Amino acid sequence: MNISINGSVLEGGGQILRNSVTLSALSGKAIHIHQIRNGRKPPGLKNQHRTGLQLAAEIASAKLTGATNGSTEIEFTPGALKTPGDFVADSVTAGSTTLLLQIALPLLLFASQPSKTPSRLTLKGGTNATHAPQIDYTENVFLPFVRRFFGIRTELQVNRRGYYPKGGGEVLFSVTPLSQCLKSFGLLERGNVRCIKGIAHFAKLPGHIGPSMVDGAKKLLSVRLAEDSSSSIPIEIQSRRERNDNTVGAGSGVVLWAELEGGGIIGGSAVGTKGIDASLLGEKAAQDLLRGLDAGGCVDEWLEDQIIIFMALAEGDSAILCGKGELQLHTRTAIWVAEQLTEARFNTEQLESGHTIIRCKGIGYRPSASSDIPC
């Protein structure tokens, strides 16, 4: 009997779809997701969501029904996870490659026959767009974090950038299957900011765009950090101009990250739009980073929700100090999905300071066909 998942709960967007299908594939539990993206205009699946579902179905040898553009319900009946191999997914549009990675990465980590041979995942579509992590955020914030705290080994190579609205980007991921269960972690001490790094990327635009984005970000960060810290914090932001033959359309963006003494990392970003001044774009990314730093957690709100699924799958107890205020809707949604489809259990603790600690008792997942994986 299929487990029924209401796609309109909480955040009510594509995240429910991605996390549900991934956990369905890993657990072997068939699911029926209805009211998909019910609150969006228009509701239902877009190219990006359909492509992600088809990719998951291929990796998990699954039967997939209802996965057409505009559909508001699908059924996903998983089979056996495939052995490490080569997989390709193309959203055709500027659909986010980083969101496609979110659905595929946990599946490739638990290949049915773990080996030292990595899977190769080629994702085509948008690399730098709004409403999704930029590929530079994934490369410099998300992947370093999961490598350090969960033991996940991946490599990323941007073959071609794809800016909105043309897309056309291509990213190659190399994912090494796990030889043991995901390890749990505790990150409750933030520490001071060790350094700030960043990338200001642009393509098919005048040469002054990159340095202007860098200057805008550096000026704002320097002023704020001088006010808040008695010691100098190194700031290193690179300007990167893409070759004209290495991108389909013109575009720009800035991704910044602050490395913390406790091992945490905070990201901030902004994507260029028509008519926005380059220096203001740099300032916008700096403001986003400063908001994350001001919240006082060990991770930013975007990293916070992306690691929930790994906390659920890990062996033992994990804990993470998050920023002040209520947990973000995306984070609460990720927790809800994990508890619907696994035996993982989460609880949150509100501190007097206003910060929140997320704690999770993970399931120590390993595929049933891979009982020799130690936990």
Automatic annotation (TrEMBL):
<dbReference type="Pfam" id="PF05189">
    <property type="entry name" value="RTC_insert"/>
</dbReference>
<dbReference type="GO" id="GO:0006396">
    <property type="term" value="P:RNA processing"/>
</dbReference>
<feature type="domain" description="RNA 3'-terminal phosphate cyclase insert">
    <location>
        <begin position="188"/>
        <end position="293"/>
    </location>
</feature>
<feature type="domain" description="RNA 3'-terminal phosphate cyclase">
    <location>
        <begin position="10"/>
        <end position="347"/>
    </location>
</feature>
<dbReference type="GO" id="GO:0003963">
    <property type="term" value="F:RNA-3'-phosphate cyclase activity"/>
</dbReference>
<dbReference type="Pfam" id="PF01137">
    <property type="entry name" value="RTC"/>
</dbReference>
<keyword id="KW-0436">Ligase</keyword>
<dbReference type="InterPro" id="IPR037136">
    <property type="entry name" value="RNA3'_phos_cyclase_dom_sf"/>
</dbReference>
<dbReference type="InterPro" id="IPR000228">
    <property type="entry name" value="RNA3'_term_phos_cyc"/>
</dbReference>
<dbReference type="GO" id="GO:0005524">
    <property type="term" value="F:ATP binding"/>
</dbReference>
<feature type="binding site">
    <location>
        <position position="102"/>
    </location>
    <ligand>
        <name>ATP</name>
    </ligand>
</feature>
<dbReference type="InterPro" id="IPR020719">
    <property type="entry name" value="RNA3'_term_phos_cycl-like_CS"/>
</dbReference>
<dbReference type="InterPro" id="IPR013792">
    <property type="entry name" value="RNA3'P_cycl/enolpyr_Trfase_a/b"/>
</dbReference>
<dbReference type="InterPro" id="IPR017770">
    <property type="entry name" value="RNA3'_term_phos_cyc_type_1"/>
</dbReference>
<comment type="similarity">
    <text>Belongs to the RNA 3'-terminal cyclase family. Type 1 subfamily.</text>
</comment>
<keyword id="KW-0547">Nucleotide-binding</keyword>
<protein>
    <recommendedName>
        <fullName>RNA 3'-terminal-phosphate cyclase (ATP)</fullName>
        <ecNumber>6.5.1.4</ecNumber>
    </recommendedName>
</protein>
<dbReference type="InterPro" id="IPR013791">
    <property type="entry name" value="RNA3'-term_phos_cycl_insert"/>
</dbReference>
<dbReference type="GO" id="GO:0005634">
    <property type="term" value="C:nucleus"/>
</dbReference>
<dbReference type="InterPro" id="IPR023797">
    <property type="entry name" value="RNA3'_phos_cyclase_dom"/>
</dbReference>
<feature type="active site" description="Tele-AMP-histidine intermediate">
    <location>
        <position position="330"/>
    </location>
</feature>
<dbReference type="InterPro" id="IPR036553">
    <property type="entry name" value="RPTC_insert"/>
</dbReference>
<keyword id="KW-0067">ATP-binding</keyword>
